[in-house]
Write a structure and sequence with these properties.
about 325 residues; globular
Length: about 325
């Protein structure tokens, strides 16, 4: 109950402190950056501790071998589809989905499925889908959901063809809960709680400085959208427009609710629909803070593969949208 209260009060608290008490304009770059930094840092810390504890308790209480056998028996496609569904229904940004990703990897769920979730969770945003439907039409919103799901599943399927586990940091696998259930041991309730708390502390202690660094960078560029740049260099007559907006959109660290109104304004200025969709997807699916935090989990080659494949997938979708809708 204390965790739920802290999570729900997080944003109103910082809004009251900075806007009402300090008198800052949250629409300004300084006020918006400060509010974003403190709100997002506490949110991610709460998600790390809360979700890792819950996942730890589940891992300590459930027979994960049976869960893995169930998934394997249903086939890879079912696993990838379930990962996309879970990603769609979890309202997380690119950084907030990392705690669940860490828990899934540590639990021994195949890396291809966990990567599919990590892509789908921010990319196929239900908030963005609703706002796209309202601003661009529900047919476009459906196409957005299908395209994002396809990117996630295709990358997950390709990842399943290779052995990528050696590019995951060893600390993810050597956890207290993994040792607790070794040799078929059935832990007591007290042992489960202690192990889950200890594992949440271990993970938080290993990533907290990277969370601060990542969110700090995100706060510095929060709200910075080069609209004039897009209008000049990513117009409908530039064949490289999709690639430009995808690469520029990656570091912006904007959520679905924040990026769609910006995208509508760019569309009104004449930007092609596919280019607009590529901008939305890249801005919410990938970010510099996400990369910094993921580096504590993934080794550089896998991190580069993850970012590169998602970026290429978004570009392909952007060009397809332009071909179909323009």
């Amino acid at each position: 109950m204390a965790w739920v209260a802290a999570y729900r009060l997080n944003e109103p608290l910082w809004t009251w402190l900075f806007r009402d008490l300090a008198g800052l304009d949250l629409g300004s770059k300084v006020g918006g950056a400060l509010h974003f930094f403190f709100f997002d840092t506490i949110k991610i810390f709460l998600l790390l501790t809360g979700l890792m504890f819950v996942i730890g308790m589940l891992r300590a209480s459930l027979d994960l071998d049976k869960a893995r056998s169930y998934l394997e028996g249903r086939g890879l496609f079912v696993g990838l589809f379930l990962a996309v569904v879970l990603g769609v229904v979890t309202p997380f940004c690119s950084c907030s989905s990392i705690p669940l990703f860490i828990g899934f990897v540590a639990a021994g769920i195949p890396l291809s499925i966990t990567l599919t979730f990590l892509i789908a969770s921010p990319l196929v945003s239900e908030i963005a889908a609703i706002m796209i439907g309202d601003h661009f039409g529900w047919g476009i919103a459906a196409a957005y959901v299908i395209a994002g799901s396809a990117i996630s599943m295709v990358i997950g399927f390709i990842a399943s063809r290779f052995r990528l586990e050696h590019w995951v940091e060893e600390t993810v696998f050597t956890t207290k809960i993994g040792q607790l259930r070794a040799d078929g041991n059935v832990p007591t309730w007290s042992e489960r709680v202690d192990a889950a708390v200890g594992e949440a502390k271990d993970i938080l202690s290993s990533v907290w400085k990277w969370v601060l660094l990542g969110v700090g960078i995100g706060a510095a560029i929060h709200g910075w959208v080069p609209a004039d740049f897009f209008a000049q260099y990513a117009g409908p007559h530039n064949p490289f427009a999709v690639a430009i907006v995808t690469l520029v959109g990656v570091p912006l660290y904007v959520n679905g609710a924040g990026v769609v109104p910006i995208a509508e304004a760019l569309w009104a200025k004449g930007m092609s629909l596919g280019t607009v969709m590529a901008f939305i997807m890249s801005a919410i699916a990938l970010s510099i803070p996400e990369g910094i935090m993921l580096r504590r989990v993934l080794k550089p080659p896998l991190l580069a593969i993850f970012f590169g494949s998602v970026t290429v997938g978004i570009m392909i979708v952007g060009y397809l949208f332009n071909a179909l809708y323009d």
